[in-house]
Specification:
- α4 packs parallel to α5, α7 packs parallel to α8 and α8 runs antiparallel to α9.
- The chain is an alpha+beta fold.
- Helices cover 56% and strands 16% of the residues.
- The strands form 3 sheets. Strands 2-1-5-4-3 form a 5-stranded antiparallel sheet, sandwiched between helices. It has a 5-stranded mixed sheet with strand order 7-9-10-12-11. Strands 6-8 form a two-stranded antiparallel sheet.
- β11 and β12 form a beta hairpin.
- It contains 9 helices and 12 strands.
- The structure holds adenosine-5'-diphosphate (ADP).
Length: 493
Amino acid sequence: MRRISLKTWLATSSAVLAAFVVGIIAVATFVVVTDGMNRLADDASRSLAASARNQVRAAVVSAEAKAKAEDAPQTAGRERFRAAFLSELPVLLAAIAPPGSEFALYDADLDLLWDSGEAGVVEDLAGARAQALRSDKVTESHPHRRLTAGLFADADLGTHVVHSPVDLPGSERMVLDVVYFARREEAVIDEVRAPMLVISSLALLLAVAASQLSIGRLLRRVDSLRKTADSIGSGQLDVKLPVLGDDEIGDLAASINRLIEQLRRRSETQARFVADASHELATPVAGIRGYINILRVWGADDPDIRAESIEAIDRESQRMSRLCNDLLLLIRGGEGLVYRHERLDVNALGRDALIGAAVRYPEKRLELMGPGDGQLPMIGDPGHIGDVISVLVDNAAKYTPVGGRVTLRTARRRGLIEIEVSDNGPGIPPEELDSIFDRFYRRDSSRSKETGGFGLGLAIAKSLVEGMGGTISVTSRMGQGSTFTVRVSRGRP
Ligand code: ADP
């Protein structure tokens, strides 16, 4: 299927909508105007009929007077009255007839007695006349009325006919039709039509132009977002979208900016991580190559140099292997690392870590205080929790000077297990407390080969603890020591 662009779609649908709305308003206005004019024509025909009935009464009085004056026998008198009435009525009606109105008089058999003009004789209304006679009430007819005609052609309000029963002396009955042609009202509708069509067309043009303008503006902004997204795709992360306007597109631009910023920071961290990792790996590799060269040159002849070189290569390769393990742990810590849920004893893991530190740093003669014999059960991953405790205990032992003290405390606090490792070592300056959890962060003083760290221990511990949904924090006072606290969920042991 052919792709329809958003612009075409929006432009077409908004134009159709505008035409629809303007059309509805125009037709509604026209209907209101036509209905009003039609009511006016109804009122005009009714009031004309009321005046005509007065004239009928006047004609009756005048005809009676004439008939009496001639003093004829009764039947002849009735004939004379009728003749006088029929000659008087046209004159009286002509006096009140506005232009565009006609009259017609019918006898009790609905035969035409008199009309003021041909147009006054409207066919097919015998039923309405009979009804007026039968009910003795005024009835109305509206033949040929087409209320919608005036929208595109001349208005046609049809004919307004009022049938009034007429009672004459001597029980003679007649029907007077007042026929009103709503020419004036139709003229008003015709006058309104042209300006209304012009105003509607202008409104339509304006609505379409306004909607096209705003659609164009909207799509230009969307297009600028697309272009930025494309440039991000091609690796350009120093772009920033202009956040124009406090609206949904502005919000979208701000969200994309935040996303770009996050991507930029992540890519910087990644680049730094790769650079740091290669740098850390380069050092032992350079050492190994150096000793291999020494072995090549002197190794065959000098057993001492050979032994020393092999010893050094072994040391460097162990360091490389430790670094690779740390890197793997760190990379997998964020994603894909499996966290087992097993029953474990935190105190036992703590004791193991303290024993490990005692074995690694015998020369320091540290006072290592642990959680004693008791158990502290929880549900978690023994490997990862053991790693976290080992990093903290190892750091405490590593950075605390000879004869110092390392204390491991464990406790249960509601649904949490708290593990606290403190030492009375040199402490960490307050401004570095946040950074020590960053990858490859080592304080200058601990950069010496003596401590042998890569600056990855705390980053790994933090990543593991956070992977378990826990927290790790540190407090420290220079010259007095540091305390690292880990809080993780106890699970349901
Ligand atoms: P590493 O110990 O391998 O250098 P870590 O990530 O474990 O890396 O620690 C980062 C830095 O934090 C260390 O270089 C050290 O300066 C500081 N640090 C960590 N633990 C302690 C501690 N107990 N006492 C003093 N400084 C510490």
